[in-house]
Amino acid sequence: MNPAAPVRASLMVTCLGDVLYPEIGVRIVRLLRRLGVVVDFPPGQTCCGLPLFNSGYRAEAAAVAQRTVPLFGDAEHVVVPSGSCAWMVKHEYPGLMPDAPTREAAQRLADHTWELSQFLVKVLGRTRFRSAWPGRVAYHDSCHLLRGLGERDAPRTILRHAAGVQFVELPGSDECCGFGGSFSVRMPEVSAAILDKKLAAVESSGADCVVACDAGCLMQIGGGLSRRRSRVRAMHLAELLEPETP
Amino acid sequence: MTFQERVVGALHDRHLQEALTIATTRFIDLRREAFDGFPEGERLRDRARGIKEATLQRLDHWLELLVANVERLGGHVHYAATAAEAREIVVGIARRSGARMAVKTKSMATEEIELNEALEQAGITPVETDLGEYIIQLAHERPSHIIAPAIHKTKGQVAELFSRALGRPVAADPEALTRIARAELRDKFLRADLGITGANFAVAETGTVVLVTNEGNGRMVTSLPRVHVALMGLEKVVPSMTDLMVFLAILAKSATGQTLSAYTTFIQGPRRAGELEGPDEFHLVLLDGGRLRQLSGPLREALYCLRCGACLNVCPVYRQIGGHAYGYTYPGPIGILLTAMLHGQGSVRELAHASSLCGACAEACPVRIDIPRMLIELRAGGVTTATAGPGERLVFRALAWLLRRPRLYRLAASVGRWLQRPFVRDGMLRGLPLFLGRWTRTRDVPAVAPRTFTERWKELEREG
């Protein structure tokens, strides 16, 4: 790589990141810029279509995917705050395209799309950070990042080495939090019962904060902790690594 | 009872919750330990999957070979297109042999065709001899797990059941309970005229039916009665003994964490001249019941299933609701696929959504069946055949429409921000109305942000 040319990355902020968790996107932009990355935000973004795809609305998901791919046509890298949306782009987008040229474009996008922790470790080669939120930190594996993208190590590498972080392994960290998108409202009682197990594990781990790399899991775990008035906070990796700007 | 009622009932059943948590956690740990100490396991899983793929591609050939070899060994082979046909065949064999009592090993295929009820109606008493099945039969229930049928019961509940059946108090001690069952069953083995088993595998090249068991009852059932009937789904055929070894190396590890099960029984036809043990007659019933249709269908991969139960143990939904809530013979993630295979798309309208798609099932599956992908296929089938409700279809199609119109999408966010005002406390929403209340009954949710990321990008752009 030419050291003079900076790495360029486009942020795919995702629907949850845009509307419910804009602070995550803001921190990602500032964090990446601090690391010398030139960040842009292609306009016209909505949602990756995963909720449609997972509920069986394949044609509808395909339509959303087909309009999303060209938005990132010029991207060198695409960074996504959520493992599940990254999985959708990487695993499902090519198969949802109508013809060979669009399939190739979708495959190019898939090849250059990264969940944030993967981008930091695998593309930028950065593993040393200072925590903006010192304390005991547990990590919850989001299902799509762990089993979908096979990424167990990148977030852990960052958390283990982050100055100010005392990393605690969460018992059953690889077990689902019970979110599952529409599952959480189709089967709310079961979703909540699964969440209860996760929250009990989080609270017994002694962590002050639980980090996840997926806005869906954060909505579920954070929503449960908030309802319980727990002292433990749920946080996106970017919120841990990049301080809030006063 | 509706699915929803069964689910809520299960969540509130204290005994069920206790029993499920203990048993599934134990199964998960045992399986992990078994594969941790078996580095070649991953490669063998790939190989097992490859064998299944290849066998199903020439299923007709391997079945013909199996039939020829079983018949060469003196056995009789029957083909059942439906569960009803399978019941008729087995009951017919029982009647012709004058059987009054049949002893059985654990078999999901016999559960699938509801054989016990058919035998009872024909005046033949079925006796389950697997301990778990024995418990279930005493309780007049159905299995709630593919390999651990009584997984939903605590030992206290089993002791109560035994006490009632025997008319005397019994201690909640698994060993004592097993001794009681053993004594009760010994007499049945000796008196039964008919032995009924499933089959974990059938080897085409040798005509061997293979049973994988842990209690020794399998040997009794297949050697003491005069007649032995084995019922198997016709996808269970494997080409050769070499192939069989690949499956045996991973099956018990996936199921119970054992290196091998305590007993692996090979059956080759009836007793031959000069042999001391074995039945006079041996029948193999090959069951279709919807399987063949899926050879070229969307559920094809579900035909690879070895019935180890590993996907149930790791499934967060199964671990909360147990097997009975699913409402069909086969519970858990693979059970949803098998239910659709056997009973059609309409049977899984709700079940197809009884998964968070976390993928733990596919990871645990010894032959790496991509269960989440097929669950999505079933959901898609629900959309195209309109078994999904009209309200749901409207909501998702409206969402899809909105997601292709970024300006309206932004407007919708603003509208949401305005509508949510009565519900916002410290940036979180609680107690939302309508279907959103399904979320906020147990969880808060962040309010639509005062400014979306898109709205904040302008100033971020200037920062850069």
Keywords:
heterodimer; A: four-stranded parallel sheet; 13 helices; 49% helix; 15% strand; globular; B: 464 residues; alpha/beta; six-stranded parallel sheet; 13 strands
Account of the protein in words:
- In chain A, 49% of the residues lie in helices and 15% in strands.
- Chain A is of the alpha/beta class and 246 residues long.
- The mean pLDDT of chain A is 97.
- In chain B, the strands form three sheets. In chain B, strands 1-10-7-4-2-3 form a six-stranded parallel beta sheet, sandwiched between helices. In chain B, strands 8-5-6-9 form a four-stranded mixed beta sheet.
- In chain B, helix 15 (332-343) crosses helix 17 (371-384).
- The interface between A and B is large, with 68 and 64 residues.
Uncertain spans of chain B, ≥5 residues at pLDDT below 50?
none
Shape of chain B: elongated
Compressed to H and E, one letter per element, the order of chain A equals: EHHEHHEHHEHEHHEHHEHEH
Query: Which chains share the greatest interface?
Result: A-B, 68 and 64 residues
Task: Work out the helicity level of chain A.
Answer: 40-55%
Rg over CA atoms of chain A: 18 Å
Q: How would you sum up the global shape of chain A? A: globular
The total of helices of chain B stands at 21
Strand content of chain B: 5-15%
- Structural class category of chain A: alpha/beta
Question: Structural class from helices and strands of chain B?
Answer: alpha/beta
Number of strands of chain A: 8
Q: Multimeric state of these chains?
A: heterodimer
